[in-house]
Amino acid sequence: xxxxxxxxxxxxxxxxxxxxxxxxxxxxxxxxxxxxxxxxxxxxxxxxxxxxxxxxxxxxxxxxxxxxxxxxxxxxxxxxxxxxxxxxxxxxxxxxxxxxxxxxxxxxxxxxxxxxxxxxxxxxxxxxxxxxxxxxxxxxxxxxxxxxxxxxxxxxxxxxxxxxxxxxxxxxxxxxxxxxxxxxxxxxxxxxxxxxxxxxxxxxxxxxxxxxxxxxxxxxxxxxxxxxxxxxxxxxxxxxxxxxxxxxxxxxxxxxxxxxxxxxxxxxxxxxxxxxxxxxxxxxxxxxxxxxxxxxxxxxxxxxxxxxxxxxxxxxxxxxxxxxxxxxxxxxx
Amino acid sequence: xxxxxxxxxxxxxxxxxxxxxxxxxxxxxxxxxxxxxxxxxxxxxxxxxxxxxxxxxxxxxxxxxxxxxxxxxxxxxxxxxxxxxxxxxxxxxxxxxxxxxxxxxxxxxxxxxxxxxxxxxxxxxxxxxxxxxxxxxxxxxxxxxxxxxxxxxxxxxxxxxxxxxxxxxxxxxxxxxxxxxxxxxxxxxxxxxxxxxxxxxxxxxxxxxxxxxxxxxxxxxxxxxxxxxxxxxxxxxxxxxxxxxxxxxxxxxxxxxxxxxxxxxxxxxxxxxxxxxxxxxxxxxxxxxxxxxxxxxxxxxxxxxxxxxxxxxxxxxxxxxx
Lengths: 333, 322
Description:
The complex is a heterodimer. Chain A is of the alpha+beta class. In chain A, 19% of the residues lie in helices and 35% in strands. The longest helix of chain A is centred in the N-terminal third of the chain and has 19 residues, at 2-20. The termini of chain A are far apart. In chain B, a hairpin with a 2-residue loop joins strand 18 (297-304) and strand 19 (307-314). Chain B is an alpha+beta fold. Chain B folds into two domains: 27-225, Thrombin, subunit H; 228-317, Roll (Pdz3 Domain). Chains A and B meet through helix 1, helix 2 and helix 3 of A and helix 2, strand 8, helix 5 and strand 14 of B.
């Protein structure tokens, strides 16, 4: 195994050397501007690019970017991801203007929040919603990038679908049931239970003060909670009972066989489950760019980026669902 | 009559030339919205056919992807997905149908791997690009089942361009996730040009096994056990590092005290054959040498300053990497 790893490293090393020693040689790599997210490709999107930049706002708290938002009315209403922008104070537009914000409403089910720019202006550039609902066709999508001077492009990459709720997990494998409780046969390294101090061989007796005898009881009680919630576990270890508070983790992060993906992903959105419908796409956007609008090649807004799932996956709430948040807003003229 | 057909010929060649020049995916960059829409339409035109031949590979301890390339169920995938030779696995087609398969060979050098569906076909399959048909800058699209088969999500599609090609590795800016591994990368003619191999730290510089790696060792991968770094360690050692260039497989370094040095090999020599087997790739050279035993003789045909020479060498023992 060590040999294998070393060889792979060596392979890279030798390739690296080859690259360096190859100034006179055959072909180099594709210049940045021609790449999928190079400037040439970005500018090919023309008006759609302009629209994306002018109708997206940066939302900040203490001058730090915490989310992006879609400007949805000429009066400066901004729709964004609720759980990302708690305490958002200011909005910055692409032209550099900065405005104070006030919150109008939140929808926890959709994880959306509606803010409004504090201003008398009624000429804010705003998104035009797409009337066509999400299709199964693979198509170009784009969003504004962090500094509102560039866009990121990609394709809708899988079927639009409902994303079910993902309960929290402790990261243990449950074994024998006995009169005393349920034995832990394995603790997943680095997972919630491991961090809290649970060990293999511990016997779970209580979950949130309720006595448990069967594996299913533990799974049910813990599964009702969300990742990030705390569960109080009483265990029996060496004839002594002990209490542990465990901050639950995400199932996909804890048990994913490919969690190397997640290690390499950088920060992902805390809430990325339980949506009635999503569009999946692959725009390279950071967690802080969630809440911003997603556009089609015509520059119509087809959704709100609602969760960064991993290094190559973003979920967006389709426009027909996201619009519900603003449907009762009357144009003030 | 002749004149008419001549005119028709002229006309048709004009039309043809016109189509070629306006194919958006053959331009250096898409220039406007209509170019982008052409690329999108082309992608949606090609997808239904090639998706049918995609498989999700289910082993006990993980999952990956693969693509069927023959009616009798030969599947191309990644070496790290198949793991080793003669292993039983299951493959699942997009329609949910599952079939038994057995792993064949491949090589850890390029990460090329093969398996064979053991159930009788006919299986849907795709066309493989001929060698050297893909170039830096070409548009490409990939398929995969990241994280395993998911009926609701369906097949995940990626798009990108080839950003580099070096020896037995291709790099694209198409996105990639573990579980995509072994999945296919197509050109905009719908032909298979590579297999997804490994993700890079940067999400827009991922690695693929170019189809040339399969072409160069097709029979060997199909019939012989997987070439691993461990098995290579046991094999013969020549003592050069080389690189694929436009003029051929060129020696970049000759190591001291090795068979290659004793044989008088020098930098910039082009390797042509090993034991009368013409070399198609750097990897094929490494495989041929390391499938011989230390102490065995190998006939090396090479080219220096335009003229060919043959040399017989006694292979040595590969030094430990540490």
